[in-house]
């Protein structure tokens, strides 16, 4: 559990006539991550070449494109039952589906919608023109220019004053249904520029009268008739498409899934190499599933396939191995980087230490209860990452309640406390520093075992020496009155520094002062907690007193809203600071990261 799954590199060699059976079995079993061998052809002996996709890849891909296109234009409907298409017959069934009819309907529907949109604009124009009972075909003259349009009602009077100053200008105005003022302005051609400037200065929106329009009321009736016909056509087309979807959507979706499976299988062979009669593939499999892989391939292809373990250069992919409860912490524990397959997985340790540190920061019974209830609600009701986050909040809430009892705090109100954060800040800081020292000791211990595992004796000794430095500093700080303890601690400190210099060289010696900074960094545990309690104490000054009458209302709002905000900060800030302490201070002592996730070749689960 504290280490990722042990991975084995395997090579599979088989005859060409068994390749379909082998690929299908690998895909169904879903235990192997297939490596791309195209760049490593030289490592194999004999006349070999990169393999190509299976023959069915092209027709399957063609049908996939067609069906995905149809699927994209069909509305989803709840009236269709789920259908599981047969993989064997999926290609033939897909080829039998005619794509022309649904696409013809779809294109015609889109064109109809565009026409309706254009008619909508024409209708708006016609409605504005209907303010005038005028034959617009007669508004033509060699000597006059006509301006037809709308002006916001609030600007009309100002525009009218300016138009009156123009010689021989005539203005007719009417109210439009939307509250604007429709105007027809007639001016001599020589005054057209001046008139246009006067109108434009007052948000004039010019309307171009359609060709052939006499009276706008007739145009409006004609447009309404066209709209009615197009709406009828739109409804008929949507009905046809919906009916088609109800009869075919589930089948098409199922065929897409089946063809995607076939396409993935047919295309994976580009990662293989081949000879005239054989194919070769390599990949990673969990050590515990190696024999399962061999058994399944023997059942599928008999003696025509050979499976063997091989040694390869490069890092194996990482598959974490945590119990389901601890796995809920993986998103946070590996947020910065996934562990490599040959190093420790920090998830188990994170799941244990993070809630404790989180609880120390929040340290309030009432706030902790809110976090606990929120976590339970998300865990029981949500799904995916939110559900896992909810589970993480549960132990964080529990530890917040435990530390709240120790600190004697609830909503910022103090009662009998084992350690008072407000009255005994030095002890609180000492507790935070001691927590940091223990946390780092655990990190260096893990670093020691990691180096031993990798046969790095010098670095392993240096990790123990770092731990000894922390112990020495602790003894010097706590037992300064004991001469024997001081001498022993000083001797241990000098010896530890010497071992660090031997194991890690000059760079290790340079980092020794930084260790003090690492430990002191844990003082943020106390700082975050004190900030939260300080805000809660201030808010408690506004505890509502209903004997004060109406003044109690804003006090209640401030009290409740302030504590809600403080709870939000109480949830958020410990997550940020607690994670930082793990990623920056704790992980650096044993963790390298940079792992690549294990992605087995397997059938995708339905969404």
How many strands in all?
A: 12
- What is the terminal-to-terminal distance? 29 Å
Strand content: 5-15%
Mean pLDDT: 87
Radius of gyration: 39 Å
Note the main sheet. Answer: 6 strands, antiparallel
Task: Quickly count the helices.
Answer: 19
Quick recap:
With 607 residues, the protein is α+β, with helices and mostly antiparallel strands. Helix content is 58%, strand content 10%. The mean pLDDT is 87.
Textual characterization of the structure:
With 607 residues, the protein is α+β, with helices and mostly antiparallel strands. It has four domains: 7-50 and 272-309, Alpha-Beta Plaits (2-Layer Sandwich), CATH 3.30.70.120; 60-98 and 232-264, no CATH class; 119-225, Alpha-Beta Plaits; 324-589, no CATH class. It is built from 19 helices and twelve strands. It starts with 6 loop residues before the first strand and ends in a 21-residue tail after the last helix.
List keywords for this structure.
58% helix; flat; alpha+beta; 4-stranded antiparallel β-sheet; Alpha-Beta Plaits; 607 residues
How are the SSEs placed, and which strands pair?
Blueprint lengths: L6 E9 L3 H11 L2 E3 L14 E2 L6 H17 L16 H6 L4 H30 L14 E8 L1 H12 L5 E6 L5 E8 L3 H9 L4 E2 L9 H52 L5 E2 L3 E9 L3 H12 L3 E5 L14 H4 L2 H4 L13 H16 L2 H17 L2 H24 L1 E2 L2 E2 L10 H29 L3 H22 L4 H28 L1 H9 L3 H16 L12 H35 L21
